[in-house]
């Protein structure tokens, strides 16, 4: 996979970026959403330059799909660099109360500052930012209540500026999901494609699947065996295997064959990527 495949930046993202920058002055707090499966690769490096030292909370979304041991490790690492990171599972709402407490802390600090300047009753304004498909709508829904936010946005769909009133004390600004113009490290683009943040058709599925299989063999061999080892054939498929062979193993485990009886690598790749994204292989962190 060449690096150039990952360089793209649609016009609506330029527009969204401008909107976020313009509104930066209006907000007290940034709620930055990143994907718990790729907490580093899903952080937009532009955010730092756009918002500088503004108070920030990091929300690690889809924690139910990520490896809990690695998630704990990431939370500690972020804490060491002074960032509060909170894993969230939208299905069980786990983590939502902790975020509320963190926001309350930020609200209290702001109220105190306002009070000193003689300002009373102005709500805290927080901007919710994150890459496409990271779970912003879902998060806002579980945080602010179903009625307050739109749902069902697909990656790449532009949304207008939207303030959501959570309470007398808190307003959220929802923003469109944006990526950044260039992935310096091609592995970042690959991880974004694996989690579904980048549209799949931009990448070659078999190549992506083989990279994933290589990674799983190295990091989660038991999950890989558990789901895709053809029955009674452990000896034939002894790890370590080349990525091509691993893909063949996946094809065989599901009887995916082409007309001539050859393993159907393409269908195996599509199936594997789908099962990764839906969490069916297991809880996997990709970095
Ligand atoms: P966005 O606004 O940032 O673009 O993301 P959105 O909330 O639309 O979420 C994108 C996808 O991620 C949705 O799935 C959503 O259900 C899923 N998602 C969000 N948060 C979590 C989470 O904490 N855990 C898990 N497992 N999934 C999460 P979808 O397949 O696009 O839609 P749907 O099947 O839910 O309708």
Task: Set out the fold topology.
Elements: H1 11-23, E1 29-35, H2 46-51, E2 55-61, H3 68-80, E3 84-87, H4 96-116, E4 124-130, H5 136-144, E5 162-165, E6 170-174, H6 186-195, H7 205-219, H8 221-228, H9 243-253, H10 265-277
Parallel strand pairs: 1-2, 1-4, 2-3, 4-6
Antiparallel strand pairs: 5-6
Helix pairs in contact: 7-8, 7-9, 7-10, 9-10
Bound molecules: guanosine-5',3'-tetraphosphate.
Can you give a write-up of this model?
It is a single chain. This protein has 287 residues and is α/β, with parallel strands linked by helices. It has two domains: 11-174, Rossmann fold (3-Layer(aba) Sandwich), CATH 3.40.50; 204-277, Conserved Hypothetical Protein Ylqf, Chain: A, domain 2 (Orthogonal Bundle), CATH 1.10.1580. It has helices at 11-23, 46-51, 68-80, 96-116, 136-144, 186-195, 205-219, 221-228, 243-253, 265-277; strands at 29-35, 55-61, 84-87, 124-130, 162-165, 170-174. A hairpin with a 4-residue loop joins β5 (162-165) and β6. The chain is elongated. Mean pLDDT is 87; it is low at 1-7 and 149-160. The structure holds guanosine-5',3'-tetraphosphate. Guanosine-5',3'-tetraphosphate binds next to α5.
